[in-house]
Amino acid sequence: MQEIELKTVIKACQPEELTAEEQHLLQLAIEATRRSYAPYSHFCVGAAVRLACGAELSGSNQENAAYPSGLCAERTVLFYAGAQYPDEPVSMLAIAARGTDGELTYEPTGPCGACRQVIVESETRARRPIRILLYGRKAVYVVDGIRSLLPLCFSEF
After folding, report:
1. Helix crossing, 20-32 with 73-84: angle to 10°?
2. Which own/partner contact pairs does 126-131 have at CB distance under 8 Å and 24+ positions apart?
3. Nearest to 29 by CA among 88, 76, 86, 64
4. Sheet of strand 44-51, all strands in order from the earlier edge strand to the far edge
5. Which residue in the list 22, 63, 74, 123 is annotated as catalytic?
6. How far apart are CA 111 and CA 128, in angstroms?
7. With b meaning 16 or more CB within 10 Å and e meaning fewer, what string describes 50-69?
8. 80-101 mean pLDDT
9. Each residue's pLDDT tens digit, 135-148
10. How, if at all, do strands 90-98 and 131-135 pair?
11. To the nearest whole number, what is the mean pLDDT of the chain?
C-alpha cells in the first residue's frame, strides 16, 4: 500500500499586510456579519466577493427554524453573484464571523463543507482559482484557491 501525503499552504498575516483592495473586502465581510440572521446558533457570518469586473457584493448567513432551510454567508453571496453577474468570475472571497459572545472571532473562520464545494463550483465555472481571505482577530489566513481547503474535491477543473 502506498501512502500519499497532501500539503496545504495557508498564509497567515495581519490585515495591514494585505493590499488596500483586500482590506476593503474584509471590511465588507465584517460589516455583513451585522446583517446576519442567526437567532438559533448566534454565530453571525459575513462574506464578501470581488468580481473580475471590480464589483463587490456581500452577504450574511440566514438561519431558519427548519434548520436545513437556512443558508451560509458564503453561499448567499456566491449565488447572488452568479445570479446578477453570471459571466463575471469571482476573483476574491472574504469571510468573517462573530461568535456567540457577539465579538469577532479570534481564530479565522473557514467555510463549511457545503460552502467549500460551492466555491469549487465557482472556480470550475470560471476556470480560475479564487483568492480566499479568512478573518480572525489573531490573523488573516490567505488561501490561493479552494483546493487548499478541500483537497481531492469533486470537480472537472
Report:
1. 110
2. 126/52, 126/89, 126/90, 127/157, 128/89, 128/91, 130/90, 130/91, 130/92, 130/93, 131/22, 131/91, 131/92, 131/93
3. 76
4. 11-13, 140-144, 131-135, 90-98, 44-51, 56-60
5. 74
6. 19
7. bbeeeebbbbbbbbeeeeee
8. 97
9. 999 999 999 999 99
10. parallel
11. 96
Taking the model in full, what pTM does it have? 0.95
**pLDDT band per the 50, 70, 90 thresholds, residue 73:** very high
Number of H helices and number of E strands within the chain? 3, 6
Burial of 128 (0-12, 13-18, 19+ CB in 10 A): middle
157 pLDDT exceeds 80?
Answer: no
Whether the per-residue pLDDT at 35 is higher than 70: the answer is yes
pLDDT in tens, 113-140: 999 999 999 999 999 999 999 999 999 9
SS3 (DSSP) at 152? coil
Q: Is 41 left (phi over 0), alpha (psi -120 to 50) or beta?
A: alpha
Distance, first Cα to last Cα, the chain:
28
Annotated active-site residue 74? The verdict is yes
- For residue 97, the cross-strand partners are 45
